[in-house]
Amino acid sequence: MTEPAFSEAEQVIEELMGLHPKGFDLSLDRIRRLLEGLGNPHLRLPPVIHVAGTNGKGSVTAFCRALLEAQGLSVHVHTSPHLVRWHERYRIGVRGGQGQLVEDADFAGALHRVAEANGGQQITVFEILTAVTFLLFSEKPADVAIIEVGLGGRFDATNVIEKPAVSVIMPISLDHQPYLGDRVELIAAEKAGIMKRGLPVVIGHQEYESARDVLVTTAERLGCPHVVYAQDFSAHEEFGRLVYQDEFGLLDLSLPRLPGRHQFANAAAAIRAVKAAGFPVTEAIAEKAMTSVEWPGRLQRMTEGLLMAHAPEGAEIWVDGGHNPGAGEVIAEAMAGFEERQSRPLYLVTGMINTKDPVGYFKAFADIAQHVFTVPIRGTDAAIDPVVLAHAAFDAGLVASPVSSVAEALDEIRERIDPDQPAPRILIGGSLYLVGNVLADNGTPPK
Hints:
With 447 residues, the protein is of the alpha/beta class. It is built from 15 helices and 17 strands.
């Protein structure tokens, strides 16, 4: 595949990467210095919904955006990381319609201004990109901004936001242990760092009671009005509908457009967060949001594109960037749900990076996947060698084969299938980097 030519903005980012400090120093000092030089644009934002968590950040951000756009509001959205192009991190709000990814000229202009203000001092790329977020969002009017945390919370560059309309903490599990801690309680304490004294907090579904306790205790200590999933608000499926409930009453809605039962809790957290931020959520607004929400690369169905020529005829292909044990569990649950509705043999095509727990991820699929094909990932030096990754799959109780590409994996599956059996279900995932490779190679990047 031919790589797309770099845009001006992407070329500037490549140049700025040389300023990254050695090691990984989580700190707010650099970003505060930089923002001061830019005139503190983070203090001139519209109301902010600030989102942290290990899993579900992107989904709840997508639901919040859908809920707000469903009522005609203009919504700026910052997400991290991107899949194919850096531009995906910035969605610029448009009143009365869906926001659009930032124009390259606007992105490049903001990058040049941020680089000039930084003056060649050491800085991380994420800090540069966060400063760009604040610059773009402060200078383009909008009704609300949704800002997703990059890593952790307490020392994340986005945590210079002083007065969020609401802080949202999504499910917490083990990930980024070298930076955040090796216990969920420690990770929860880092994520809780985005809470601001006396301001609203929404705590999403938490698998670990110990993590939930840390979040609730922190909210109470800071005097934050807070609500907790399954205690103060909830959502469940009933007769093929999504029933949401909180202290204000019930909403009877269509099931979310995003597949998987885990999305019920994500949708509920978004509804409650938008309310806590001071925006109305009627049944009509929520209904429109559930049927229009979109979030590329997370249980996204691939039905067309260049890679489809390699897939078995009639195959059902999904891509998902989930990359830790917690994500593996919810994705495996979704695959099991698909199996209940229509039985198909499940194959995994997996690539991961070396900061993740591949055995923990693979264990979730041990009883449902027939075979794993492990693949390399372009664009990162941290990719796990496919042979090593295949051994991790074996350790988790799966049968695995290393191959050179996703296309080769699809070719192998096509050769293996029994023509008398249902066409296979194929899950391509294990890393957002891999999903980005796949969407680029398939010719279907996010828009």
